[in-house]
Design brief:
The protein has 323 residues and is of the alpha/beta class. It is built from 10 helices and 8 strands.
Length: 323
């Protein structure tokens, strides 16, 4: 039975932190992988999971910087991973599988936001390629270790920006339509949500559950492609004269929902849902104007199946869950 797309409620909320949602959780013996684990939300997730006892692998583009950022954290190692390049993804997955260890928790966190138009060597628009296709390939490569865990969870970092665009299956790489960096980002975040849904529909029978997570609005290095004018506009007062920064979360709060999805006993037996503010989000109508909730195009099983097939085609990966 599909998990309903509505709040539990969990008892947590907008201001909850990663440490708070892990209160009382003992993760000793659990192996977690966090992509983009050397900075921002990824680093905070690594820190919180490590503090709760997990063995954590931070998968990052720049291992030297990550080693410095994560210095002193127990049971934390750093591995090189560049989600734009298939060779790097496959090499990382082979190293993990060769180690013989199970992977209990996978947080597909790394990403790029509102980048200028750029295409990968395969011609894929870079936000769709890194945020979705790279994580699709990575999860497929790690599948034997996830299945081995006997109860793994995979969390894809989506965003409220999914409301900016569904996946354009006819032109996902902006080859025929004008490029819009926010629509491209929104499309990639819709893809993250649909991937979690599609994975959960296929993987639940093997003991692996998947979720997508909206961290909230946080100022991190993810905004590196935004101009100062764009950043200042985000900080302007709203129509009621209140500073828009009031809706922004700290990094500790922003990491909380992903960590909650990875570890909460409240989600046992559930999966495939989009979560925000440390709870399952409410499904909302397509024309809802205000932020919050998940739009129909990001929680549609038919679209999830279509994205799965497209992802296999674009990556050349046969994501065979039976193996």
């Amino acid at each position: 039975m599909r998990t309903p797309q509505r709040p539990l409620p969990s008892g947590f909320g907008h201001a909850s932190t990663a440490d708070e949602v892990l209160t009382g959780r003992n993760l000793l013996g659990r192996v977690a992988i966090v992509t983009g684990g050397g900075a921002g939300l990824g680093r905070e997730a690594v820190r919180a999971l490590s503090r709760a006892g997990a063995t954590v692998i931070a998968a990052v583009r720049n291992p030297a910087l990550a080693l410095a950022a994560l210095e002193g954290l127990p049971r934390v190692t750093v591995e090189a991973l560049d989600l734009e390049h298939a060779e790097s993804i496959d090499a990382f997955a082979r190293r993990i599988i060769a180690s013989g260890q199970a992977v209990h928790l996978l947080l597909n966190n790394a990403g790029v936001m509102a980048a200028p138009l750029r295409r990968t060597a395969k011609g894929h628009e870079v936000q769709f390629a890194v945020n979705h296709l790279g994580h699709f390939r990575l999860t497929a490569g790690l599948w034997p270790a996830l299945k081995q865990a006997g109860g793994a969870r995979v969390v894809s970092m989506s965003s409220g920006a999914h409301r900016a665009s569904p996946v354009d299956f006819d032109d996902p790489h902006f080859e025929r339509r004008p490029y819009d960096k926010w629509k491209a980002y929104g499309q990639s975040k819709t893809a993250n949500a649909l991937f979690a849904l599609g994975l959960d529909m296929r993987a639940a029978a093997h003991g692996v559950r998947a979720f997508s997570s909206h961290p909230g609005s946080i100022f991190t290095d993810l905004s590196r492609h935004l101009s100062e004018a764009e950043l200042n506009a985000m900080r302007k007062p709203d129509a009621n004269g209140q500073p828009t920064t009031a809706v922004y979360k700290t990094v500790a709060q922003g990491a909380a929902t992903g960590v909650w999805c990875l570890t909460s006993a409240q989600l046992d037996g559930m999966g495939g849902v989009y979560c925000e503010d440390c709870d399952i989000a409410q499904g909302v109508d397509a024309d809802k104007k205000l932020p919050g909730g998940v739009r129909p195009w990001a929680s549609d099983p038919t679209a999830a199946d279509r994205l799965w097939r497209l992802s296999e085609q674009l990556t050349g990966v046969n994501f065979a869950l039976s193996s």
